[in-house]
């Protein structure tokens, strides 16, 4: 009996492990006050995706003690929140068949600082992890973001300058060769003989 019970336990554990939904998010994020930010959430499921049955829910936990708030809900179609701090500030950016449950927060405010939880259910695959994103709304872009931006711009400018130098050098080389091949080669001079010389 004990052996049979253990076998059943292992089987159930295996089924639950296989059928658990896995959710992937971007973890920690920064966004500049007043800008739009994409909260990326993708998922893996062992069951075939049924677009009519999939449910996606996003909730928000503020940094300061406070109640958890609904941010967004999806079931067959997007349902933005009818009230609260996210009213008219959330749009659907996902694709259920593409296993994408992402949303966009528009014109983020400092009150949006906190943790965003993404949960996906694809019956019968309804158990599994949840995805969390910790968002920090800042006044200006952080030094690391500015540095990356500067490097990207600097790299682009350097590439353009380098390309121009190559083009100019090639043109000069061509002109130089044309001059060499052109009529610059002097005809051999005929020596004049001095009639008085013996």
Automatic annotation (TrEMBL):
<keyword id="KW-1133">Transmembrane helix</keyword>
<dbReference type="Pfam" id="PF07686">
    <property type="entry name" value="V-set"/>
</dbReference>
<keyword id="KW-0393">Immunoglobulin domain</keyword>
<feature type="domain" description="Ig-like">
    <location>
        <begin position="19"/>
        <end position="139"/>
    </location>
</feature>
<protein>
    <recommendedName>
        <fullName>Ig-like domain-containing protein</fullName>
    </recommendedName>
</protein>
<keyword id="KW-0732">Signal</keyword>
<feature type="transmembrane region" description="Helical">
    <location>
        <begin position="146"/>
        <end position="170"/>
    </location>
</feature>
<feature type="region of interest" description="Disordered">
    <location>
        <begin position="178"/>
        <end position="198"/>
    </location>
</feature>
<comment type="similarity">
    <text>Belongs to the myelin P0 protein family.</text>
</comment>
<dbReference type="GO" id="GO:0005886">
    <property type="term" value="C:plasma membrane"/>
</dbReference>
<keyword id="KW-1015">Disulfide bond</keyword>
<dbReference type="InterPro" id="IPR003599">
    <property type="entry name" value="Ig_sub"/>
</dbReference>
<keyword id="KW-0325">Glycoprotein</keyword>
<dbReference type="InterPro" id="IPR013783">
    <property type="entry name" value="Ig-like_fold"/>
</dbReference>
<keyword id="KW-0812">Transmembrane</keyword>
<dbReference type="GO" id="GO:0098609">
    <property type="term" value="P:cell-cell adhesion"/>
</dbReference>
<dbReference type="InterPro" id="IPR000920">
    <property type="entry name" value="Myelin_P0-rel"/>
</dbReference>
<dbReference type="InterPro" id="IPR007110">
    <property type="entry name" value="Ig-like_dom"/>
</dbReference>
<feature type="compositionally biased region" description="Basic and acidic residues">
    <location>
        <begin position="187"/>
        <end position="198"/>
    </location>
</feature>
<dbReference type="InterPro" id="IPR036179">
    <property type="entry name" value="Ig-like_dom_sf"/>
</dbReference>
<dbReference type="InterPro" id="IPR029863">
    <property type="entry name" value="MPZL2_Ig-like_dom"/>
</dbReference>
<dbReference type="InterPro" id="IPR013106">
    <property type="entry name" value="Ig_V-set"/>
</dbReference>
<keyword id="KW-0472">Membrane</keyword>
